[in-house]
Amino acid sequence: MKGINNKWMRAAIPALLLHCSIGTVYCWSIFSQEIADYIGHTKGATEWAFSFAIFFLGMSAAFLGNIVEKDIHKSSLIAAICFAAGMAGTGAFIYYGGAHKGSTLALVGIYLCYGFIMGIGLGTGYLSPVKTLMLWFKDRKGLATGLAVAGFGAAKAIASPIMQAMLNGLGEGGIYKMFLILAVVYFVMMFLGHLLLKKPDDWHEPAKSEKTPEIMEVIKTRPITNYIGIWLMFYINITCGLALISQEKMIVKCIGLAASVGVISTVSAIFNAGGRLGLSAMADKMKDRNTMYKIIFIASIVCTGAVILTGGIKNGAGNMPLTILVLVLIMVVNAGYGGGFSNVPTLLSDNYGMGSISALHGITLSAWAFAGLTGNQLANWIVSNFGKAKLVDGNLVNPTGYQTVLIVTGMLYVVALLISMFMVKPMKEKAE
Question: What is the largest CA-CA distance in the chain?
Fold first, then answer.
């Protein structure tokens, strides 16, 4: 590996190997029903495994950010081991659950493996390449971080058909066999990323004898409300994105496009990944990266408001202009959701410098942890308590419930825009 020393082999490729592996956590919806059926539990009970995975992703990033800061080789190895071990353990407990239908041990074991152990791998794996990318791509930090985070977003689109083919082709017990096989595949990919990942030779870490500033000291180099604002607008953007994305398939059915759900889901995933790459690359040309968040929130408010005012979800079936309007909203929210992720590390580095960026980025990802527990649940609660289900083209949907979700997310986007405008102050000069 010593002879290989360029930004693509030492930063971009290993980042993609890591993020394209851990990003498959979002494939949960593909096999969650099959797991529930195989182990004899409800789908609702198994869904908590995914919520726990996202929660522990954010919390492990927050608490292990200092390890990433000090040693990316240790953190990327921890990521590879924990992610692969979590997948293998999930497969083992699914196997046990199949032999002992309704077993509480199997369900708790899946929570522990897919949620907690994989969650640690997710958090450390997500953080590990980010600072390295920004160091190698000093002039295009947004493009660099967008590339990796786009890999995380695109992982579902890449892995979904492969997983579906494995489930169909592995026969009896294919669900647990798939997890065991993929545990090996992803460990190899992530271990290779671990071996390749390296900071540039001209970057010198602070000597061990030097006192590393505490995170609060770094945050207080600017008004404390500045960081609180960044955290809150990041949290709101994820919460709103998850709320809409979790209802996306039902909204598509509600506007009479049930036959196109798969295609629209793929296109929205492309917008999600494209937002991660494109919006962060565009922000490289902006004097203040916070401008990109203002653009994301304004676009989301305009599209959400248009669908609310026209009753697009209620009246979309059979009405082409309203159908197109709802689809535009879905794509805009997906792009803004992805762009919110990729712009956070670069916004933080512009405000607080590169010295403690991994630890600071890790703490900020705690917003993702809490949004992972609130976004989906907020939307589900609204749909369950507002409006009534009715048949549209043979599908049971709740148009009033989905419209109410938009009213709530629209108000939250307004709050996020105000935070972006008045709490996150522009910088006179970018921090180094």
Answer: 69
Same domain for 184 and 291? no
Yes or no: say if 402 and 269 are a contact pair by the CB < 8 Å rule: no
Query: How many CA atoms are closer than 13 Å to the CA of 319, on its beta-carbon side?
Result: 15
Instruction: Output the tens digit of pLDDT for each of the chain's 432 residues.
Output: 554 568 889 999 999 999 999 999 988 878 888 999 999 999 889 988 998 999 999 999 989 888 888 889 899 999 999 999 999 999 999 999 999 999 999 999 999 999 999 999 999 999 999 888 888 988 888 888 888 788 888 888 888 889 989 998 998 899 999 999 999 999 999 999 999 999 888 776 655 555 667 888 889 989 999 999 999 999 999 999 999 988 998 999 999 998 888 788 888 888 998 999 999 999 999 989 999 999 999 999 999 999 999 999 999 888 999 999 999 999 999 999 999 999 999 999 999 988 888 889 999 999 999 998 888 889 989 998 999 888 888 888 999 999 999 999 999 999 999 999 999 988 766 555
Question: The tokens of 339 are what?
Answer: 């762009």
CATH number, domain containing residue 410 = 1.20.1250.20
Nearest-angstrom CA–CA distance, 413 and 244: 12
- Which residues are CB-neighbours of 143 under 8 A, at least 6 positions away? 137, 277, 280, 281, 284
Do 421 and 301 reside in the same domain of the chain? yes
Q: Return the percent helix, strand and coil in the chain, to nearest 5.
A: 80, 0, 20
Within-domain flag for 49: yes
> Are 175 and 255 found together in one domain?
no
* 158, 261: one domain: no
Residues belonging to the chain: 432
**pTM for the whole thing?**
0.87
Q: Which domain holds residue 318?
A: 218-432
